[in-house]
Design a protein that fits this description.
Elements: E1 17-21, H1 26-37, E2 41-46, H2 51-57, E3 61-64, H3 70-84, E4 89-92, H4 107-134, E5 144-149, H5 162-182, E6 186-193, H6 199-202, H7 206-214, H8 224-234, E7 246-249
Parallel strand pairs: 1-2, 1-4, 2-3, 4-5, 5-6, 6-7
The structure holds nicotinamide-adenine-dinucleotide.
């Protein structure tokens, strides 16, 4: 079973301004393409210059931005405003990780992982919320939406992921907190993917991958485009009451006891 049939909803995000971090590849790229296909004006922030090609192909804007650096985060928000006048959806998604047990992990590695996955998400949300609060509401009465890419590892443990899981637990907590602080003006929602076939995952050796898939009742990884389809719905007016929570996309992975 695969998920080849994808139908962007024309005009659902017409003229909305969508900013995604880590949009040069993987889930962020698929989201950038999906939001553009639904009419959004897209801004990509990434340390990978290939984000420039992704942005060019969808009529969007790319800024080389390191989400662990305060000035880069500020510059990304400013680029969205100077290009399109406002920010309607800010999607914290960039990440890096080193997977090994805590006694083998260095403090520098921890600082890098959490510097993007917690501090970077927090700085991104701060920049976006600060701007959103000053801008006029859309016709739906909203001033903006914060999307945070979390993970099934926000909910359960897996071996060797302590620093990464610390970020994903924090993302969930931050998502709730932002909603409490900024409803009814700004929604905040997390997306919690299970196994998604992005570049990093494709490098997992076949025998290891077979073991991973064996623990997923749906018996496959999802495509990044499936996460993008969910993100586009979550950020849309149709999901206006979805706030302060996480939406899980995991092929029933978390259903196994
Ligand atoms: N792929 C999965 O199975 C999976 C599962 C659960 C959650 N997630 C989450 O989804 C999100 C995207 O994951 P992915 O699989 O698409 O990853 P990916 O490695 O394919 O893409 C990550 C992107 O982030 C960019 N990036 C790295 N460091 C950055 C920095 N300091 N500043 C700006 N950009 C930076 C990279 O250049 C890259 O383009 C992450 O938050 C990840 O934790 C992924």
């Amino acid at each position: 079973m695969s998920a080849a049939r994808m139908f962007p909803v024309p005009g659902r995000h017409q003229a909305r301004v969508y900013v995604v971090t880590g949009g040069a590849q993987g889930i962020g790229r698929a989201c950038a393409e999906r939001f553009a296909a639904e009419g959004a004006r897209v801004v990509i922030g990434d340390i990978d210059e290939r984000g420039s090609d992704v942005a060019a192909a969808i009529g969007g804007v790319f800024l080389r931005a390191d989400m662990s650096k305060p000035d880069d985060v500020t510059a990304l928000a400013a680029a969205a405003v100077s290009s399109f006048g406002r920010i309607d959806i800010w999607h914290n998604n960039a990440f890096t990780a080193v997977f090994k047990p805590i006694h083998e992990q260095t403090l520098d590695e921890f600082d890098t992982i959490t510097g993007i996955g917690i501090r970077g998400y927090w700085m991104g949300a701060k920049a976006a919320v600060t701007l959103m609060l000053t801008q006029s509401p859309l016709e739906n009465g909203r001033k903006g939406v914060i999307l945070n890419t979390a993970s099934v590892q926000s909910f359960v443990g897996e071996k060797g992921f302590s620093a990464y899981q610390a970020t994903k637990g924090a993302v969930l907590a931050m998502t709730r907190s932002l909603a409490i602080d900024h409803e009814p003006h700004i929604r905040s929602v997390a997306i919690a993917p299970g196994l998604i076939a992005t570049e990093a995952v494709k490098t997992i050796p076949g025998d290891v991958m077979a073991g991973v898939i064996a623990n997923i009742p749906a018996a496959r990884a999802a495509a990044p485009e499936e996460v993008a389809a969910l993100a586009a719905f979550i950020a849309s007016d149709e999901a206006d009451y979805m706030s302060g929570t996480a939406v899980i996309l995991d092929g029933a992975y978390l259903s196994i006891g």
